[in-house]
Amino acid sequence: MATGTPDSQARFGQSVKGLLTEKVNTCGTDVIALTKQVLKGSRSSELLGQAARNMVLQEDAILHSEDSLRKMAIITTHLQYQQEAIQKNMQLQSQRQILNLLRHQGTPITVFIQQSAKSHTWCGNLN
């Protein structure tokens, strides 16, 4: 190995020391960036997990709402049937009251009561 002057050796040492310091700083910066990325990825997986849990909760709520709507539709249909039956009964009761009134008056009358196409035709002699 050739030996140089102490001055050139000092410059070479400082140059190597400067390069080494630069490389250490670069590695430190890379480690910091890598750590930030790992933490960011960790946070992303937490957020994805939370989003998945929220989605499951929303899906359950939607399914429950659909079930409730189906039940309400059934109840509505039953209520409509009951309303129609009540209306028919009210009409029949009104007609019976009229017939009873005429019968009690003793008026001989032939009555033809025809309801809508859905109901029966009533024919009667009130004697």
UniProtKB/TrEMBL annotation:
Keywords, A to Z, come to: Lysosome, Membrane
One matching Pfam family is BORCS7
A single Gene Ontology CC annotation of this entry is:
lysosomal membrane
Compartments, as annotated in UniProt:
Lysosome membrane
Q: Which InterPro entries match?
A: BORCS7 (IPR032143)
- Is Disulfide bond set as a keyword in this record? no
- Name the protein family: Belongs to the BORCS7 family.
The record's listing under PANTHER family reads: BLOC-1-RELATED COMPLEX SUBUNIT 7 (PTHR31397:SF3), BLOC-1-RELATED COMPLEX SUBUNIT 7 BORSC7 (PTHR31397)
According to UniProt, the name of this protein is BLOC-1-related complex subunit 7
Source organism: Sus scrofa (Pig)
